Amino acid sequence: SHVMMSNMTASIDESISLMQHVKAVDAHERKCREKRLNSNNNTMGYRFNKLTGQMEIYEPEAVLVRKMFEMRVYEDKGCTAIAKYFGEKGLMGYGGNKYITETAILKYLRNTAYIGKMYFNKGYTEFNNGIGGKSVRRERPKEEWICVPVPPIVSEEIFYLAQQILDENGKRLKAKTDAKTAPTRFVGSHIFASKV
User: What's the start-to-end Cα distance of the chain, in Å?
Assistant: First the structure.
């Protein structure tokens, strides 16, 4: 009887989870059809205004976003140096409760919202229904992303200069890594070493 009760509880939990998932998917599809942002779309430098239904610039963070772009483009500072600068100044990121990491800075420098193009519907959760099943986050094709205009924080000029610098640095880093690892990549005693 205890096993039967456990199975019934698990089945009910699974049904509730599935119903919540279906409701969330329905709400998301409605949001996409209406091209409507909400507070889930908040990011560094922006806040959703529930009264107007619009994303607005949040100046205390927008100042930091502009500084990131200026340091990257005009001062030739990398993401690590920018993160260190902000950390030394005690400047916090989104929400004001966490230090800004170099990974976050790279994400911010790549974010088109800062030139007025905020995208959502970029990913989806693959729901795994079953006991112990894990849901997986997947990226959608870019054609399915939905763009909503927002007020820009930086100019297109500085944004695209930053993209060019980031792309060039990425190519240099990849070339340097490839040159270092190529001679040793297939050396060793593992079974495939002599078959390459």
Answer: 59
CA distances from 153 to 21, 22, 44, 113, 171 (A): 35, 36, 11, 8, 27
CB atoms closer than 10 angstroms to residue 39: 10
Are 92 and 99 spatial neighbours (Cβ–Cβ below 8 Å)?
yes
Report residue 60 as tokens. Answer: 């205390």
Alpha carbon distance 22, 20 (integer Å) = 5
Helix (H, G, I), strand (E, B) or coil at 148: strand
Residue-wise pLDDT for 154-188, tens only, equals: 999 999 999 999 999 876 665 655 555 555 545 55
The count of other CB atoms within 10 Å of the CB of residue 188 is 10
The residue type of 46 is Y
Sort 134 into a burial class: Cβ within 10 Å, 0-12 / 13-18 / 19+: exposed
pTM: 0.69
H or E segment to which residue 49 belongs: strand 46-49
Helix or strand run (H / E) with residue 53: none
| Chain segment 88-134, per-residue pLDDT in tens | 998 888 777 788 999 999 999 999 999 999 988 788 777 776 666 77
